[in-house]
Design a protein that fits this description.
single chain, alpha/beta, Rossmann fold, 7-stranded parallel β-sheet, 9 strands, 42% helix, binds NADP nicotinamide-adenine-dinucleotide phosphate
């Protein structure tokens, strides 16, 4: 396999996947809704791709044998958006789709990402499913970064623990999966330890030299805060489910899948925070 389409290539995980696949010598089509913002060259070809615009799908899939597939984040419409891409990939003879799902969705058949998993498994395209836990990068560049600017983490997570994982480790695992052709497999990807959000805040405070506090807020307060940012109601409800899973302890499990795939231990939150300290300073 030579060429891979990377969906979500402008996001936290997608950028890391492009870097990891480039390092293994793959040619990359970097799918983006605004490809003009991506620097071309170095084996990376930006291509226009939007799930809602099926006219962009065929051109994006041109000449690729593999697809790194991800859903738009927090999108309850993910099954309807991804199915046409999976079907087109099948008809184009794509040889491997690696899907980013999320840890725990295999316990909830009606979860949008579980439905996408089922669609992919039934598609006839050789597949691999990666189920990562919450990303460490949510605190540095992702959807929680604006909160950190206010020196706070305000979530309805109670004291639930999460085995946060770095996108660098997920991306390395994805590149190994493509390289070794590990198809018909499912991996649950976590970091090396489960932490609660007070521990996360303490580590960020220590490495950045700026005090960040965690405030465990009621679910209603979290949801109205999200509505206040303009988040669509479907995504607000998606977040509600995610953090009820954290409170229930479902995100605390630690697996060995990163080390089994990559041969190295996943990054600790402490190491991630030290690398990212400048973002919070
Ligand atoms: N963050 C987590 O903790 C976590 C945990 C488990 C699983 N996941 C899954 O991992 C994936 C990536 O998450 P992330 O945190 O890296 O997200 P992110 O940084 O917000 O990136 C999302 C990417 O999806 C693209 N995108 C959004 N809507 C799109 C659409 N309608 N059509 C085409 N592209 C679209 C964005 O492109 P634009 O530049 O065009 O906006 C961006 O490149 C998601 O599927 C998420 O469900 C995330």
């Amino acid at each position: 396999m030579k060429n891979i389409l990377v969906t979500g290539s402008t996001g936290s995980l997608g950028r890391a996947v492009v870097t990891a696949l480039k390092a293994k010598g793959y040619g990359i089509r970097a799918a983006a809704r605004a490809p003009g913002k991506l620097p071309p060259g170095g084996g990376v070809e930006p291509v226009l791709f939007a799930y809602e615009d099926q006219a962009t799908h065929a051109a994006a899939l041109q000449g690729v044998e593999g697809v790194f597939l991800m859903a738009p984040p927090l999108d309850p419409e993910a099954p309807a958006k991804l199915k046409p891409v999976i079907d087109l990939a099948k008809s184009r003879g794509v040889r491997h789709i690696v899907l980013t799902s999320a840890m725990g969705v295999d316990a909830v058949e009606q979860a949008p990402l579980r439905i996408v998993e089922r669609q992919l498994m039934a598609s006839g395209v050789p597949y691999t499913i990666l189920r990562p836990n919450f990303f460490m990068e949510n605190f540095s560049t992702g959807f929680l970064a604006p909160m950190l600017k206010q020196r706070g983490i305000f979530l309805a997570a109670a004291d639930g623990k999460t085995s946060f994982i770095s996108v660098v480790d997920i991306a390395e695992a994805a590149s190994v999966v493509f390289q070794k052709g590990l198809v018909s497999k499912e991996y649950n990807l976590t970091g090396p330890e489960a932490l609660d959000h007070a521990q996360v805040a303490a580590t960020i405070s220590e490495v950045s030299g700026k005090t960040v506090t965690y405030q465990a807020i009621p679910e209603d307060a979290m949801l109205s805060g999200l509505r206040g940012t303009g988040m669509p109601e479907g995504s607000v409800q998606y977040v509600r489910v995610l953090y009820s899973a954290v409170r229930a302890g479902y995100t605390a499990a630690v697996t060995n899948d990163i080390e089994a795939l990559t041969g190295r231990k996943p990054m600790s939150f402490d190491a991630f925070a030290r690398q990212s300290a400048a973002v919070w300073a």
